[in-house]
Design brief:
The chain is of the alpha+beta class. It has a domain at 24-114: 2-Layer Sandwich (Alpha-Beta Plaits). It contains three helices and five strands, in the order βαββαββα. α1 packs across α2. It starts with 23 loop residues before the first strand and ends in a 9-residue tail after the last helix.
């Protein structure tokens, strides 16, 4: 019989703690080119990120899942998403990249956010807003 002889089984409670399988970090970056040559399109920009990872971290680095969520060819800025375990690898690879198509270049990390429901905060800076 159950507790206190009432014929009821004791209720079993199980505590479950769920962890997200892959926490992400988001980076707002800008590519700076030394001269006014051709600008990379979205596919070329993504390839440049993969190249940076490959040059510093080899094929393992190149396999790191990085998503280009937004890219503006006009300003050469993008929002990148990377799993948290690869965050340092991505940032270091971008920092140390020095050339795009034999031209000097540099990635500037403008803003970083861990996984957040407030991703719109990365999409722009109200101080840079241009009204037509």
């Amino acid at each position: 019989r159950g507790p206190a002889g009432r014929g009821m089984a004791a209720a079993a409670f199980e505590r479950r703690v769920l962890r997200r399988a892959a926490e992400h970090h988001y980076l707002r970056v800008r590519l700076e080119l030394a001269d006014g040559g051709a600008r990379p399109n979205a596919a070329q920009f993504k390839q440049l990120v993969v190249t940076a990872l490959r040059e510093l971290h080899g094929e393992v680095g190149a396999a790191l899942p990085v998503d280009v969520l937004t890219y503006e060819e006009k300003t050469l800025s993008a929002i990148l998403r990377v799993i948290s375990s690869g965050f340092v690898k991505l940032w270091s690879a971008l920092t140390l990249l020095g050339f795009y198509q034999n031209r000097r270049c540099a990635f500037r990390v403008l803003q970083v956010k861990p996984t957040s429901p407030f991703l719109l905060a990365l999409s722009g800076n109200s101080r840079e807003l241009v009204l037509d």
